Amino acid sequence: MEKKDLDWGSLPFSYMKTDYSYVCNYKNGAWEEGGLTTDHSLQMSECAGVLHYAQTIFEGLKAYTTESGDIVCFRPDLNAQRMADSAARLCMPEFPQDKFVEAVKEVVTANAAWVPPFGSGATLYVRPYMFATGDVIGVKPADEYQFRILVTPVGPYFKGGDTAVTITVADYDRAAPHGTGNIKAGLNYAMSLYPGEKAHAAGYAENLYLDSMTRTYVEETGGANILLVDKDGNLVVPQSFTNSILPSITRRSLVVVARDILGMNVIERPVKFQEILDGDFVECGMCGTAAVISPVGHIEAEGIDVTFPDGAETSGPVMHKLRSTLTEIQSGKVEGPEGWVVKIL
Ligand SMILES: *Cc1c(COP(=O)(O)O)cnc(C)c1O
Q1: Ligand 1 centroid vs 76 CA: distance in angstroms?
Q2: Would you please indicate which residues are annotated as catalytic (active-site) residues?
Q3: C-alpha 309: how far from its chain's center?
Q4: How far is CA 150 from its chain centroid?
Q5: What are phi and psi of 265, to 5 degrees?
């Protein structure tokens, strides 16, 4: 298959129109057949529920080329499941999970010419999303929805490569104490834009959010879960007692990699921000689909100046090992657990 004529090595992390998107409508209590479309814009009622009450959710995964030339994606079943959980929380219908995986395969196959070649550092970002198209004026869930998938080739999320970044502490909450932070929904991102812009303007890469109920425990950053390494070399994974950390697929996969493949001790527990201030951790990383792990070297805020000594400049040894092992599994170099790497083409 003829690849598109793109400079794969220098793609930004931004949207580019490709050949096909996938679209499927929900009407009269049922999902229609759904299929590919070449129409990349959409028209809807001025009264659509998404526009007024923010009934919209999304997912993100990547399709990429392995060393042997296969086009694959990573654990799409978990994206399907998480989207179903997000839908339930926002009173939206579940998009059938097997249909989700089939739709991902269909739209990636149709856009195979846009999947970056192995070794380019780029991937095809796959963005499933669903929103309320039905008219709503009184506050209630809409009765019509659209599910779509767009795909777009992207370069690395963090341009600086393995350079450790400095993050700050948001003085805003990301999620309400009654919890919507554990779903992948635009509403959480909308609430993070203001503190995010403030952090960027002050020179920080990201915000670290504390739990919104007591503001004493670490949750996650704006768009990535946090991983820590303590002085004994344990991987410490923050847990939320209000269930408001987004269940990152990368984080859940890294826990398995650390425990079952690298033989590390993994501790998943609530982590007090004070422990970080006390210097109890030697490495920190942010994990998510786009970057796998990006190293955090410092946390700074008014009266706060924390350095992670083993990863202050670039990834520390544990984050480095975790990232390279997961990357090798994804690229097919190392065999991972059954069902993780799903062949598309
Ligand atoms: C998507 C997302 C992540 C990362 O999840 P992955 O499944 O690993 O990509 C982490 N935090 C938030 C808030 C997210 O939206």
Answers
A1: 14
A2: 184
A3: 27
A4: 15
A5: -90, 125
Q: Give the distance (Å) from ligand 1 centre to CA of residue 326.
A: 16
Tokens 């600086």 correspond to 160
84's tokens: 């179903």
* Helix (H), strand (E) at residue 169: strand 165-169
Closest CA to 17 of 35, 29, 4: 4
Residue closest via CA to ligand 1's atom 4 equals 288
Q: What is the pTM of this model?
A: 0.97
- Mean pLDDT along residues 203-220: 95
Q: What angle do CA 110, 149, 121 make, to 5 degrees?
A: 70
- The model's pLDDT over 269-324, given as tens digits with 9 standing for 90+, comes to 999 999 999 999 999 999 999 889 999 999 999 999 999 999 999 999 999 999 99
Cα Rg of the chain (Å, integer): 20
Those residues with Cβ within 8 angstroms of residue 271's Cβ, 6 or more apart along the chain or in another chain:
217, 218, 228, 236, 238, 239
The preferred substitution site among 240, 289, 327 for testing ligand 1, maximizing ligand atoms within 8 Å of CB, is 289
3-state secondary structure of 177: coil
Ligand 1, residues at Cβ distance < 6 Å: 60, 184, 220, 223-225, 246, 248-251, 288-289
Residue 131: helix, strand or coil by DSSP?
A: strand
Distance 267 CA to ligand 1 centre (A): 20
By mean pLDDT, which of 1-5, 67-71, 103-107 is the weakest?
1-5
Residue 345 Cα to ligand 1 middle (Å): 26
**167: number of CA atoms within 13 Å, CB side?**
24
- Quick check: 158 and 165 in contact, CB under 8 A? yes
Residue nearest to atom 13 of ligand 1 (CA): 223
2, pLDDT greater than 80? yes
